[in-house]
Amino acid sequence: MEANSSSACFQCIRSLCHLAQETTGSGAEWVKVVGVYTLMPTSVILGLGGSPLWSAKCTYLTIAGNSQGAKDGKKGSDVINQYFGIFFFIFQSSAVWGNLMSSLIFGQDTNIIHIPEEQLQTCGTADCGLSVNSSSNSTTTRPEQKLVWTLVGCYIGVGVLAMLIVAVFLDNIDRNTTSEFRGNREPFWHTFLATFRLLKDRRLVILIPLTMYSGFEQSFLSGEYTKNYVTCALGIHYVGFVMMCFGATNSLCSFFFGRLARYTGRAALFFLAALTNFACIIALLYWRPHPDQLPVFFVFPALWGMADAIWQTQTNALYGVLFPRDKEAAFANYRMWESLGFVIAFAYSTFLCLEYKLYILLAVLVLTVITYPIVEYREHKNPTLPVIDGTYDKSEKAYEKGQEEDEKNVICQTQM
Protein backbone atom coordinates (compact mmCIF):
# COMPACT_ATOMS: atom_id res chain seq x y z
CA MET A 1 0.00 0.00 0.00
CA GLU A 2 1.63 3.19 -1.10
CA ALA A 3 0.74 5.94 1.31
CA ASN A 4 1.21 8.63 -1.29
CA SER A 5 -1.78 7.36 -3.29
CA SER A 6 -4.06 6.02 -0.60
CA SER A 7 -3.49 7.86 2.68
CA ALA A 8 -6.66 9.90 2.35
CA CYS A 9 -8.72 6.79 1.65
CA PHE A 10 -7.26 4.91 4.61
CA GLN A 11 -7.74 7.88 6.92
CA CYS A 12 -11.40 8.17 5.93
CA ILE A 13 -11.96 4.43 6.40
CA ARG A 14 -10.23 4.51 9.78
CA SER A 15 -12.29 7.49 10.87
CA LEU A 16 -15.45 5.58 9.98
CA CYS A 17 -14.15 2.67 12.07
CA HIS A 18 -13.57 5.07 14.97
CA LEU A 19 -17.12 6.36 14.64
CA ALA A 20 -18.46 2.82 14.85
CA GLN A 21 -16.37 2.17 17.96
CA GLU A 22 -17.41 5.43 19.65
CA THR A 23 -21.11 4.97 18.92
CA THR A 24 -21.16 1.38 20.14
CA GLY A 25 -19.05 2.14 23.21
CA SER A 26 -21.39 4.85 24.43
CA GLY A 27 -22.40 2.74 27.40
CA ALA A 28 -26.18 2.56 27.24
CA GLU A 29 -27.79 0.03 29.55
CA TRP A 30 -28.42 -2.49 26.80
CA VAL A 31 -24.75 -2.39 25.85
CA LYS A 32 -23.92 -3.84 29.25
CA VAL A 33 -26.00 -6.89 28.34
CA VAL A 34 -24.88 -7.41 24.75
CA GLY A 35 -21.50 -5.66 25.03
CA VAL A 36 -19.65 -8.75 23.86
CA TYR A 37 -21.68 -8.62 20.63
CA THR A 38 -21.07 -4.91 20.02
CA LEU A 39 -17.85 -3.67 21.56
CA MET A 40 -15.76 -6.63 20.42
CA PRO A 41 -16.83 -6.54 16.74
CA THR A 42 -16.39 -2.77 16.55
CA SER A 43 -12.98 -3.10 18.18
CA VAL A 44 -12.05 -5.54 15.42
CA ILE A 45 -13.33 -3.07 12.83
CA LEU A 46 -11.27 -0.32 14.44
CA GLY A 47 -8.17 -2.50 14.31
CA LEU A 48 -8.74 -3.39 10.67
CA GLY A 49 -9.17 0.27 9.83
CA GLY A 50 -6.20 1.46 11.84
CA SER A 51 -3.63 -1.06 10.62
CA PRO A 52 -3.37 0.10 6.98
CA LEU A 53 -3.53 3.73 8.02
CA TRP A 54 -0.51 3.50 10.32
CA SER A 55 1.53 1.66 7.70
CA ALA A 56 0.50 4.19 5.06
CA LYS A 57 1.28 7.11 7.36
CA CYS A 58 4.79 5.87 8.11
CA THR A 59 5.46 5.18 4.44
CA TYR A 60 4.14 8.59 3.46
CA LEU A 61 6.39 10.41 5.93
CA THR A 62 9.44 8.35 4.97
CA ILE A 63 9.00 9.05 1.25
CA ALA A 64 8.36 12.73 1.92
CA GLY A 65 11.39 12.95 4.21
CA ASN A 66 13.74 11.35 1.69
CA SER A 67 12.34 13.56 -1.05
CA GLN A 68 12.82 16.74 0.94
CA GLY A 69 16.29 15.65 2.01
CA ALA A 70 17.31 15.11 -1.61
CA LYS A 71 16.03 18.55 -2.58
CA ASP A 72 17.75 20.32 0.32
CA GLY A 73 20.97 18.34 0.21
CA LYS A 74 20.40 16.93 3.71
CA LYS A 75 20.55 13.41 5.09
CA GLY A 76 17.24 11.69 4.53
CA SER A 77 17.33 10.17 8.03
CA ASP A 78 17.58 13.63 9.62
CA VAL A 79 14.57 14.92 7.71
CA ILE A 80 12.61 11.76 8.48
CA ASN A 81 13.32 12.27 12.19
CA GLN A 82 12.01 15.82 11.95
CA TYR A 83 8.90 14.73 10.07
CA PHE A 84 8.04 12.04 12.59
CA GLY A 85 8.66 14.54 15.37
CA ILE A 86 6.20 16.98 13.84
CA PHE A 87 3.65 14.24 13.21
CA PHE A 88 3.75 12.91 16.76
CA PHE A 89 3.71 16.46 18.12
CA ILE A 90 0.32 16.88 16.47
CA PHE A 91 -0.86 13.32 17.06
CA GLN A 92 0.00 13.17 20.76
CA SER A 93 -1.64 16.53 21.34
CA SER A 94 -4.92 14.69 20.75
CA ALA A 95 -4.49 13.29 24.25
CA VAL A 96 -4.64 16.85 25.54
CA TRP A 97 -7.74 17.90 23.61
CA GLY A 98 -9.53 14.58 24.03
CA ASN A 99 -8.95 14.38 27.76
CA LEU A 100 -9.70 18.07 28.21
CA MET A 101 -13.02 17.45 26.50
CA SER A 102 -13.84 14.43 28.66
CA SER A 103 -12.68 16.13 31.87
CA LEU A 104 -14.78 19.24 31.26
CA ILE A 105 -17.84 17.15 30.43
CA PHE A 106 -17.50 14.61 33.23
CA GLY A 107 -16.49 17.40 35.60
CA GLN A 108 -20.14 18.40 35.60
CA ASP A 109 -21.04 15.11 37.28
CA THR A 110 -22.14 15.65 40.88
CA ASN A 111 -21.77 12.00 41.83
CA ILE A 112 -18.23 12.24 43.27
CA ILE A 113 -17.70 10.07 46.33
CA HIS A 114 -15.06 10.45 49.05
CA ILE A 115 -12.42 7.73 48.97
CA PRO A 116 -12.12 5.85 52.29
CA GLU A 117 -8.74 5.35 53.91
CA GLU A 118 -9.13 1.58 53.71
CA GLN A 119 -9.21 1.72 49.93
CA LEU A 120 -6.10 3.91 49.80
CA GLN A 121 -4.22 1.08 51.48
CA THR A 122 -4.83 -1.08 48.40
CA CYS A 123 -3.61 1.41 45.80
CA GLY A 124 -0.41 0.91 43.84
CA THR A 125 1.54 -2.25 44.58
CA ALA A 126 0.49 -2.26 48.25
CA ASP A 127 -2.19 -4.77 47.29
CA CYS A 128 -2.33 -7.21 44.39
CA GLY A 129 -4.11 -4.54 42.37
CA LEU A 130 -6.87 -6.81 41.11
CA SER A 131 -9.26 -5.54 43.76
CA VAL A 132 -9.52 -2.24 41.91
CA ASN A 133 -11.60 -4.06 39.33
CA SER A 134 -14.23 -4.84 41.93
CA SER A 135 -17.69 -3.51 41.19
CA SER A 136 -17.85 -2.25 44.73
CA ASN A 137 -15.06 0.23 44.09
CA SER A 138 -16.66 3.62 44.68
CA THR A 139 -14.07 5.54 42.67
CA THR A 140 -15.25 4.01 39.39
CA THR A 141 -18.89 5.09 39.71
CA ARG A 142 -20.41 5.52 36.27
CA PRO A 143 -21.02 9.15 35.15
CA GLU A 144 -24.52 10.31 34.28
CA GLN A 145 -25.81 8.87 31.00
CA LYS A 146 -26.48 12.28 29.44
CA LEU A 147 -22.84 13.23 30.00
CA VAL A 148 -21.72 10.02 28.32
CA TRP A 149 -23.84 10.77 25.26
CA THR A 150 -22.55 14.34 25.17
CA LEU A 151 -18.97 13.10 25.07
CA VAL A 152 -19.76 10.51 22.38
CA GLY A 153 -21.40 13.21 20.27
CA CYS A 154 -18.28 15.37 20.54
CA TYR A 155 -16.05 12.46 19.52
CA ILE A 156 -18.23 11.64 16.53
CA GLY A 157 -18.14 15.27 15.43
CA VAL A 158 -14.34 15.31 15.58
CA GLY A 159 -14.20 12.04 13.62
CA VAL A 160 -16.39 13.41 10.84
CA LEU A 161 -14.31 16.60 10.70
CA ALA A 162 -11.13 14.52 10.41
CA MET A 163 -12.52 12.62 7.42
CA LEU A 164 -13.47 15.82 5.64
CA ILE A 165 -10.10 17.50 6.22
CA VAL A 166 -8.08 14.50 5.00
CA ALA A 167 -10.31 13.81 2.00
CA VAL A 168 -10.09 17.41 0.80
CA PHE A 169 -6.61 18.63 1.74
CA LEU A 170 -4.16 15.68 1.89
CA ASP A 171 -1.83 15.84 -1.12
CA ASN A 172 -0.23 12.97 -2.97
CA ILE A 173 3.53 13.29 -3.09
CA ASP A 174 3.97 13.44 -6.86
CA ARG A 175 2.28 12.43 -10.07
CA ASN A 176 5.06 10.12 -11.31
CA THR A 177 5.15 8.03 -8.15
CA THR A 178 1.38 7.70 -8.15
CA SER A 179 1.24 6.62 -11.79
CA GLU A 180 4.08 4.17 -11.29
CA PHE A 181 2.39 2.63 -8.27
CA ARG A 182 -0.96 2.21 -10.01
CA GLY A 183 0.74 0.62 -13.01
CA ASN A 184 2.82 -1.82 -10.95
CA ARG A 185 0.41 -2.60 -8.14
CA GLU A 186 1.06 -6.04 -6.69
CA PRO A 187 -1.64 -8.46 -5.53
CA PHE A 188 -2.80 -8.11 -1.94
CA TRP A 189 -1.44 -11.50 -0.90
CA HIS A 190 1.98 -10.65 -2.30
CA THR A 191 2.10 -7.53 -0.14
CA PHE A 192 0.70 -9.42 2.83
CA LEU A 193 3.30 -12.19 2.60
CA ALA A 194 6.07 -9.61 2.14
CA THR A 195 5.45 -8.58 5.74
CA PHE A 196 6.48 -12.03 6.93
CA ARG A 197 9.22 -12.53 4.36
CA LEU A 198 10.94 -9.47 5.77
CA LEU A 199 11.43 -11.40 9.01
CA LYS A 200 14.32 -13.11 7.26
CA ASP A 201 16.21 -9.87 7.86
CA ARG A 202 18.01 -10.30 11.18
CA ARG A 203 17.81 -6.59 11.90
CA LEU A 204 14.03 -6.76 11.98
CA VAL A 205 14.06 -9.78 14.28
CA ILE A 206 16.44 -8.01 16.66
CA LEU A 207 14.12 -4.98 16.68
CA ILE A 208 11.13 -7.02 17.86
CA PRO A 209 11.79 -6.46 21.62
CA LEU A 210 12.08 -2.70 21.06
CA THR A 211 8.89 -2.64 19.01
CA MET A 212 6.92 -4.77 21.45
CA TYR A 213 8.11 -2.67 24.38
CA SER A 214 6.42 0.31 22.75
CA GLY A 215 3.12 -1.53 23.11
CA PHE A 216 3.87 -2.67 26.65
CA GLU A 217 4.77 0.77 27.96
CA GLN A 218 1.81 2.53 26.34
CA SER A 219 -0.66 -0.04 27.64
CA PHE A 220 0.80 0.21 31.14
CA LEU A 221 0.27 3.94 31.45
CA SER A 222 -3.18 4.00 29.86
CA GLY A 223 -4.39 0.89 31.67
CA GLU A 224 -2.49 0.11 34.85
CA TYR A 225 -1.34 3.53 36.02
CA THR A 226 -4.70 5.19 35.50
CA LYS A 227 -6.53 2.34 37.21
CA ASN A 228 -4.28 1.30 40.10
CA TYR A 229 -2.86 4.69 40.98
CA VAL A 230 -5.04 7.55 39.72
CA THR A 231 -8.54 6.06 39.87
CA CYS A 232 -7.84 4.17 43.07
CA ALA A 233 -6.43 7.12 45.04
CA LEU A 234 -7.99 10.19 43.40
CA GLY A 235 -11.08 8.98 41.59
CA ILE A 236 -11.99 8.43 37.96
CA HIS A 237 -12.61 12.14 37.36
CA TYR A 238 -8.83 12.78 37.64
CA VAL A 239 -7.87 10.36 34.88
CA GLY A 240 -8.48 12.92 32.14
CA PHE A 241 -6.29 15.55 33.77
CA VAL A 242 -3.45 13.10 34.34
CA MET A 243 -3.56 11.89 30.74
CA MET A 244 -3.61 15.51 29.58
CA CYS A 245 -0.27 15.95 31.31
CA PHE A 246 1.04 12.86 29.51
CA GLY A 247 -0.26 14.08 26.16
CA ALA A 248 1.13 17.59 26.52
CA THR A 249 4.60 16.37 27.49
CA ASN A 250 4.54 13.71 24.80
CA SER A 251 3.51 16.18 22.14
CA LEU A 252 6.13 18.81 22.98
CA CYS A 253 8.92 16.28 23.40
CA SER A 254 8.06 14.59 20.10
CA PHE A 255 8.68 17.85 18.30
CA PHE A 256 11.81 18.61 20.33
CA PHE A 257 13.43 15.18 20.07
CA GLY A 258 12.60 14.93 16.38
CA ARG A 259 14.94 17.86 15.82
CA LEU A 260 17.45 17.01 18.55
CA ALA A 261 18.13 13.58 17.00
CA ARG A 262 20.02 15.33 14.21
CA TYR A 263 22.69 16.39 16.71
CA THR A 264 22.68 13.57 19.28
CA GLY A 265 21.83 10.56 17.15
CA ARG A 266 19.19 7.93 17.87
CA ALA A 267 21.16 5.86 20.37
CA ALA A 268 21.57 8.64 22.94
CA LEU A 269 17.84 9.38 22.87
CA PHE A 270 16.87 5.72 23.13
CA PHE A 271 19.02 5.26 26.21
CA LEU A 272 17.58 8.43 27.74
CA ALA A 273 14.09 6.98 27.26
CA ALA A 274 15.17 3.64 28.72
CA LEU A 275 16.74 5.31 31.76
CA THR A 276 13.62 7.41 32.32
CA ASN A 277 11.30 4.41 32.13
CA PHE A 278 13.60 2.37 34.36
CA ALA A 279 13.56 5.05 37.05
CA CYS A 280 9.77 5.37 36.83
CA ILE A 281 9.21 1.62 37.10
CA ILE A 282 11.43 1.33 40.18
CA ALA A 283 9.68 4.31 41.78
CA LEU A 284 6.22 2.90 41.04
CA LEU A 285 7.17 -0.36 42.72
CA TYR A 286 7.71 1.45 46.03
CA TRP A 287 5.36 4.43 45.80
CA ARG A 288 2.18 4.32 47.87
CA PRO A 289 -0.22 6.82 46.22
CA HIS A 290 -2.23 9.15 48.45
CA PRO A 291 -4.41 12.19 47.61
CA ASP A 292 -2.08 14.40 49.67
CA GLN A 293 0.66 13.77 47.08
CA LEU A 294 -1.30 15.25 44.18
CA PRO A 295 1.68 16.68 42.20
CA VAL A 296 3.36 13.27 42.13
CA PHE A 297 0.42 11.82 40.18
CA PHE A 298 1.35 14.19 37.34
CA VAL A 299 5.13 13.72 37.53
CA PHE A 300 4.99 10.09 36.40
CA PRO A 301 2.88 10.66 33.26
CA ALA A 302 5.04 13.67 32.39
CA LEU A 303 8.22 11.60 32.53
CA TRP A 304 6.48 8.72 30.78
CA GLY A 305 5.33 11.08 28.04
CA MET A 306 8.88 12.30 27.52
CA ALA A 307 10.15 8.74 27.16
CA ASP A 308 7.26 7.68 24.93
CA ALA A 309 7.98 10.60 22.61
CA ILE A 310 11.41 9.10 22.00
CA TRP A 311 10.12 5.55 21.56
CA GLN A 312 7.53 6.67 19.01
CA THR A 313 9.49 9.14 16.91
CA GLN A 314 12.83 7.35 16.85
CA THR A 315 11.50 3.81 16.37
CA ASN A 316 9.39 4.89 13.40
CA ALA A 317 12.31 6.80 11.94
CA LEU A 318 14.63 3.83 12.54
CA TYR A 319 12.37 1.54 10.54
CA GLY A 320 12.28 4.05 7.71
CA VAL A 321 16.07 4.29 7.64
CA LEU A 322 16.81 0.55 7.91
CA PHE A 323 14.28 -0.71 5.37
CA PRO A 324 14.03 1.90 2.59
CA ARG A 325 13.29 -0.73 -0.08
CA ASP A 326 10.56 -2.44 1.93
CA LYS A 327 8.85 0.43 3.68
CA GLU A 328 5.33 -0.98 3.53
CA ALA A 329 6.34 -4.41 4.85
CA ALA A 330 8.63 -2.87 7.47
CA PHE A 331 6.00 -0.56 8.92
CA ALA A 332 3.42 -3.34 8.78
CA ASN A 333 5.81 -5.38 10.93
CA TYR A 334 6.25 -2.43 13.25
CA ARG A 335 2.51 -2.15 13.84
CA MET A 336 2.12 -5.90 14.12
CA TRP A 337 4.74 -6.34 16.85
CA GLU A 338 3.73 -3.19 18.69
CA SER A 339 0.12 -4.34 18.64
CA LEU A 340 1.21 -7.74 19.93
CA GLY A 341 2.76 -5.94 22.89
CA PHE A 342 -0.58 -4.24 23.53
CA VAL A 343 -2.45 -7.54 23.25
CA ILE A 344 -0.17 -9.41 25.65
CA ALA A 345 -0.19 -6.60 28.21
CA PHE A 346 -3.97 -6.25 28.19
CA ALA A 347 -4.42 -10.04 28.15
CA TYR A 348 -2.64 -10.59 31.47
CA SER A 349 -3.94 -7.33 32.94
CA THR A 350 -6.82 -8.94 34.85
CA PHE A 351 -4.88 -12.02 35.94
CA LEU A 352 -1.59 -10.74 37.37
CA CYS A 353 -0.85 -8.51 40.33
CA LEU A 354 0.45 -5.03 39.57
CA GLU A 355 3.86 -5.83 41.01
CA TYR A 356 4.34 -8.68 38.54
CA LYS A 357 3.21 -6.46 35.66
CA LEU A 358 5.91 -3.96 36.57
CA TYR A 359 8.51 -6.72 36.67
CA ILE A 360 7.43 -7.92 33.22
CA LEU A 361 7.64 -4.37 31.88
CA LEU A 362 11.09 -4.01 33.40
CA ALA A 363 12.23 -7.32 31.88
CA VAL A 364 11.11 -6.29 28.38
CA LEU A 365 12.86 -2.94 28.84
CA VAL A 366 16.12 -4.65 29.81
CA LEU A 367 15.83 -6.97 26.80
CA THR A 368 15.31 -3.92 24.60
CA VAL A 369 18.41 -2.21 25.98
CA ILE A 370 20.42 -5.36 25.24
CA THR A 371 19.19 -5.99 21.69
CA TYR A 372 18.85 -2.47 20.28
CA PRO A 373 22.60 -1.63 20.31
CA ILE A 374 23.20 -4.68 18.10
CA VAL A 375 21.12 -3.10 15.35
CA GLU A 376 22.91 0.23 15.69
CA TYR A 377 26.30 -1.51 15.59
CA ARG A 378 25.40 -3.39 12.41
CA GLU A 379 24.07 -0.20 10.85
CA HIS A 380 27.25 1.65 11.81
CA LYS A 381 29.43 -1.02 10.20
CA ASN A 382 27.27 -1.42 7.09
CA PRO A 383 25.14 1.71 6.58
CA THR A 384 21.90 1.23 4.67
CA LEU A 385 21.87 3.35 1.55
CA PRO A 386 18.66 5.35 1.18
CA VAL A 387 16.47 4.59 -1.80
CA ILE A 388 15.28 7.80 -3.39
CA ASP A 389 11.69 7.35 -4.44
CA GLY A 390 9.38 8.82 -6.97
CA THR A 391 10.66 11.77 -8.93
CA TYR A 392 14.13 11.45 -7.50
CA ASP A 393 14.81 7.71 -7.96
CA LYS A 394 15.16 7.71 -11.72
CA SER A 395 18.58 9.32 -11.93
CA GLU A 396 20.42 12.37 -10.77
CA LYS A 397 19.06 14.21 -13.77
CA ALA A 398 15.57 13.81 -12.37
CA TYR A 399 16.12 16.39 -9.68
CA GLU A 400 18.82 18.47 -11.33
CA LYS A 401 15.95 20.31 -12.98
CA GLY A 402 15.43 22.03 -9.66
CA GLN A 403 12.70 22.48 -7.16
CA GLU A 404 10.42 24.21 -9.67
CA GLU A 405 10.02 21.05 -11.73
CA ASP A 406 9.32 19.00 -8.60
CA GLU A 407 6.65 21.39 -7.44
CA LYS A 408 4.85 21.00 -10.76
CA ASN A 409 4.42 17.29 -10.05
CA VAL A 410 2.75 17.77 -6.69
CA ILE A 411 -0.88 16.73 -6.77
CA CYS A 412 -3.23 18.85 -4.74
CA GLN A 413 -6.42 17.14 -3.67
CA THR A 414 -8.33 20.38 -4.03
CA GLN A 415 -7.52 20.43 -7.77
CA MET A 416 -8.60 16.86 -8.45
Automatic annotation (TrEMBL):
Keyword line: Glycoprotein, Membrane, Transmembrane, Transmembrane helix
Stretches assigned to coiled coil: none
Gene3D superfamilies linked: MFS general substrate transporter like domains (1.20.1250.20)
Membrane topology type: Multi-pass membrane protein
Residues annotated as transmembrane: 83-106, 147-170, 204-223, 235-257, 269-287, 332-352, 358-375
Chief localisation class: membrane
InterPro entries membership: Ion_channel_UNC-93, MFS_trans_sf, UNC-93_regulatory
Protein's cellular compartments: Membrane
Gene Ontology CC terms: membrane
Family: Belongs to the unc-93 family.
Name by which UniProt lists this protein: Protein unc-93 homolog A
Protein species of origin: Collichthys lucidus
Lineage of the species this protein comes from: Eukaryota, Metazoa, Chordata, Craniata, Vertebrata
